[in-house]
Amino acid sequence: MFKNYLKITWRNLLRHKAFSAINIVGLAIGMASAALILLWIQNEVSFDQFHEKNDRLYSVYNRSVFDGKLWCWNTTPKVMGKIIKQEYPQVEDVCRTNWGSTFLFTVGDKHLNLQGNFTDPSFLTMFSFPLVHGDKHTALNTIHSIVITEKLSKKLFGNDNAMGKSIKIDSNAYFTVTGVMKDLPNNTRFSFEYLMPWTYMTKIGQDDQYWGNNSIQTWVLLKPGVTEAMANKALVNVTKSHSDTKDIQQFVYPLSKLRLYSKFDEKGHPDGGRISTVRTFSLIAAFILLIACINFMNLSTARSERRAREVGIRKVVGALRGSLISQFLGESVLIAFIAGVIALVAVQISMSGFNLLTEKTLFVPYGSVSFWLVFVGFILFTGLISGSYPALYLSSFKPVSVLKGTFKAANAVITPRKVLVVVQFWFAVVLIICTIIIRQQLQYAQDRDIGYKKDNLVYVSMTGNIEKNYLAIRNDLIASGAATSVTKTSAPITQGWSDSWGYTWKGHMDKNKIDFNIFNTDGDFVKTMGLKIVAGRDIDVKTYPTDSMAMLLNEAAVKIMGLKNPVGEIVNNGEGKDARHYKIVGVVKDFILQSPYEPVKHMLIQGPKSWFNFIHFKLNPANTTANNLKRAEGVFKKYNPDYPFEYNFVDQEYARKFGDEQRLGTLASLFAGLTIFISCLGLFGLATYMAHNRIKEIGVRKVLGASVTSVTTLLSKDFLILVMIAFVLAIPMAWWAMHTWLQSYAYRVPISIWVFVIAAFVTVFISLATVSFQAIKAALTNPVKSLRTND
Q: Does an H or E element contain 435, and which?
């Protein structure tokens, strides 16, 4: 029986090659699209879920009220971890990680600037990052021990075993490799090439005991049986109990939720995060697959006349409806299997491009048994869904009506096929509208005035001897003609690395705690960055020696501080011998330091008596960029010969701020295009079949004088009506989805009526072009040939 069904299915596929091809291609595209999205989703939801102690691993958070709102953040003082470990019995273990440090690694003639983390020895026992070589319990116990990844081991030592080998760090320290770690998986929040012990961080003076410096992450492993609520109750007043700060509380948050649920509302409750994107793409995957299945349903039921006699004869000779349903479902599963194989090939071919687009390293796990079980289940699910309605529809034919030729239903106003076509285009239109609005929002933010001139602006990290030789480097950069101005800063102009509170000034109210972005510079800051002075002047130590304690404010800071004439006012920070008193010398126009989608935050730009990490310099416009960089490289090599000359263009760094939205827009465009293509593929098949079924009618109409235009309109209007109904139904859904999405941006584009007009035009044009091709072809057919046909 099964063999007989297989033969029938195969013959039907070969007999109707065009329809079979449309079915298979539509299903394959839908399945491939859904598979790619599901691989991305699987990667997102599996972030840091592989740790053996995952259910007991938590990140320590702070919360406090600033500017009248409750803020939650997961940077903590460096001293906190040690205190928690010593004094809180609910915690089994603690480790700290910084945000990444860059050191020059030298092995033989190899010199590499590499990024890694300082951490405590317990990191290797708390988290499940296995060591290929070495003992995780002792690998970071000594001050000059280092754990490197397999990838870094190959960079430094080739295929040799790295264990016990020496690495020169910067120019004055030698570390011994005490562990080689398996390369990090692509679904972890951690990113490093090496781990160095926290004790070395203390030795080089980067550790401190200051409770006001929230600059690292603290991780805790709770003891078995200790719940999150119990830990929060115990740890709530860690800072309050050990410092003068009385208005900051602590709580722990599960590592397992950090990736997807990282946002908090103004009451301190978790309020989503990347989970919204995951849910959105889950719906997109489901709908794309559904649209492909709808194609199958529509085309299968449209060909019902051709299978009607087969069903009638089978029923007359005793076939039960159940066996017919099984046969038709089997056919759809076979088609789904063929489409699934094609989809798998398509996924493999497009994987590299998809990874480039999503900035991930996704792969198809061919060696996993569970993957193949899921793949087979995916095919069966698709086959059963796509074949369910055709099987029920075809098996319901009554043999008497079929054999008499009276089984056709009346041309009802609402039919399942029409509903399915509307559903297809409803989702396609929603995606088109969403894509347009996402693109508008991206362009809206990109066109925003950033407040400084990013062109020809370059920054370099102050590694090695750069800080010691800064004055010489600055003078030589200008003298060589490579740069027109140079300045030192605490962070890149595109990033906010520091924020603080506790500043006071004349008229300040103690109860009003304000958190400021902190930026440090030495001189020529305004000139180098191309900022605009609103009042006063730039910091200039050469002309004004007292400017070592000078300060610039941005407009947002002036507003929130309530200063009418800020220039000359004093801003205080700290108490006693550590107190600092800054004199405001100028006000600069607001410039974007962090997100271009948010209002500019109040900022304090402090003078030279601060810390510095970067040099910014403006390239000389009189020379080519390549020539300027060659001259600059010569200067840096002269004063910092052991380090490679590594630089960053500010305009490129700023462009990365739009990465998430660009990826979202590109993905939305891609899947909107695929959705339209799949829908039009089905529409093309339906139009072809409709034109074929009405070929005699078309012949008669042409004989009676009907024009090509009237025949084309006759064949096209029904489909266009369905498309317009889909568009009308899609408007409220698309508006709601985009209105909700835009609420996460303070700086956002308004939803314009023209978006819907453009979407309507695009949808109607594409669908009309699809249907009209077959309609015009049918209308141009010789009526004599049409009336002679027996089919």
A: helix 416-446
